[in-house]
Amino acid sequence: MRKRVLEMVWHSHKPVGAYALLDGLLEEGHRAAPTTVYRALDFLLGLGLVHRIASLNAFVGCPQPGQPHTGQFLICEACGSAEEIDDDGIAQAVRRGAERIGFRVQHPTIEITGRCPRCR
Ligand SMILES: [Zn+2]
Ligand SMILES: [Zn+2]
User: Fold this and answer.
1) What's the 26 CA to ligand 1 centre distance in angstroms?
2) 81: in domain
3) How far is ligand 2, taken at its centre, from the CA of residue 9, in Å?
4) Half-sphere CA count of 76, side-chain side, radius 13 A
């Protein structure tokens, strides 16, 4: 289940939601409970293989799993694609700014909306 969910998230060029994954599994003849899919996604999130895009309530595959990072996502408002950039300078600036005011960061992921090169 975890492997199939990972494959489906990776196969999609857009962030994909849990219910779209459930539909995909059902088309393949697997009737999975939403909790099963959420558990698989949590497992994959824990390994850093996928990221959650909170503003879309959806998931994308990480192009650089294996090394810990907080990603920044450029989300296209026209086609719904999400491109991950991993800019250490941005991550450090956020960390420094938070430390300065004593803020404890829980989810450092940054989501930026706009237009992708294809839709521009
Ligand atoms: Zn990533
Ligand atoms: Zn686009």
Assistant:
1) 28
2) yes
3) 18
4) 15
